[in-house]
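Regression test attached.
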Amino acid sequence: MSAKDRSKEGSMKAITANRLRDGEVVFLGDGGRWVESFAEAALFPRDEADGVLAAAKEKAERERFGVDIYAFEVVEQDGVPVPATMRERIRTAGPTVRTDLGKQAWGKQAWGNQAA
Amino acid sequence: MNHIAPGARAGIYHYDEIDRQFVAERVEQFRKQVDRRLSGELTEEEFKPVRLMNGLYLQLHAYMLRIAVPYGVMSAVQLRKLAEIGRRYDRGYGHFTTRQNLQYNWIKLEDTPAILHELAEVDMHALQTSGNCVRNVTTDPFVGAAKDEVVDGRVYAEILRQWTTMHPEFTYLPRKFKIAISGAESDRAAVRIHDVGLLARRNDKGEPGFSFYVGGGLGRSPFVGKLVREWVAQEDFVAYLEAILRVYNQYGRRDNIYKARIKILVHELGLETFTREVEEEFARLRGPKYRLDPEVVEAIRQHFAPPPFEELPDHSDALERARAADPAFANWLAVNVAEHKAPGYAIATISLKPAGGIPGDATCDQMDLVADLAERHSFGELRVTHVQNLVLAHVKKDELYDLWKRLDDAGLGSANAGLIGDIIACPGLDYCALANARSIPLAQAISARFADPVRQRTIGELGIKISGCINACGHHHVGAIGILGVDKKGTEYYQITVGGDPTLTTAIGDILGPAVTETEAVDAIEAIVDVYLANRRDGAERFVDTLARVGHAPFKERIYAAD
């Protein structure tokens, strides 16, 4: 189920990290797979997020994949799930002062599901 | 290692084989540490302090690598290398910081050993740019060129680099430790907002030495550095500093990160007790071992010998013709060019603050251009300032017009040094993992609002400084107008302070009133400026002086009138 569909179910959380080898912002997607695009992030009900987060941290460290792993709040805006805070919106897109950089600068095709 | 000597340029310290071997060994150590992290041999908990000791942070979008520019001075060769690294490993630009360093924002961990290897080829590194150690020492960007210089701050900053690097007592301090040195009568290094600030002074006999200010700092608890000793002889420079560091190491708090800086220790012990402890330690240390050997000092001084200035008349006909013919150049000359100690030369500040631009950012093409211009016009060296600009310190007056035209063509010709457009801004929430609010967009909006150079000069000296969180990397506490970004339930707000001062008369600004929204902030700044202009005396009274005379009330009334 996409992020858009799931966020309609209520207050949700997504899980994010920076990829160890290059620092790229990644999100936990369906099936425990890490993806680069927030559009492909899995959303979790608040009461499930802690458990998923703990497992993701353990797995990411074991696989040497990600660092600084945490969950963040997602809200729905105009029918689209978006991070609740400016901080996470900036992480999912890139610097607001350099829209030529970060994920926001990817070509449209780059917003598709990217196995990380 | 393919070593590329930075060149026998004026004002650049030349590494010897010991320096080079040490830096090369550190690169290889870090290469192995990165390998061990990527292979899983080291956990993140184990690796994090190691990467921080090599200047590598994790920020919002990627790793950030902070490169040391020792005392803010570098060669054209070194700047070209920074440009090359920015192109190859980053996104084509770099960010000059208030610590006179350079940061790349899009670094990959796996590339970092190669980057450090390339930096070492030009005697550069990222050591002492992070961690609880003595950080890269900063100094006056006009060093070696200013008319009011008492001693050459580079010599003592270099002595501290050699003294503190790998010094076991200074590598695991309670907290980071920042030292600034001003070798001139004017303070262009903001010495009293540092853990230790050194100000060159002559004693009654005319002998040069240093005043020691201790316990300054911004952040959550801002303090102005207190005068601990009026005059310390140059030969006792290291001994006195070591005495301060020993007292800090012994009594500084390690149980609470918010109370670990020396400013808290000085505050809690009280100046009298702190000074007594330092003096007792100094008395124990003072002696041959800690006395600076004049021969060693002289050898270091030789690295900073004046460049081969030509004997020139102080007046330049070419300059005066250009000044008369080109008003934009005349404006830049009046604002960005300072007097030089050598006749016929001038000090040129290159503003990295174009109207609407990102303070401190320079593209790699701009870095290459400045490197070329440094070679052509300033003996191949340049400086980074703590207000995030660059300086060519030794430019012939005859050549200033050519220099400015080249700069202006590349977007580097803004005439705003020290004016309202010369804004310090930290990276803020656009990049920084610690930030609560964005700093850069506000800086851009303010500099765009006050873009008119005539208006800027009419307003005169007025520093705006913006921080995106209470850590105060944007020095907002000492801005004539300071702006602190705060987060209120997910919305960015900006708290305005007024009356800060980063010079010898250092002062922490006062909060003017409730925080304003991002959209209100630029109007609020303009309202403050309008009130100032309406109240200032003789058309020339400085903002901080008008504020001191009329108080906060007229400013508050204007900004919060509708509340």
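Expected vs. actual: identical. Helices of chain A lie at 3-7, 46-62, 86-93.
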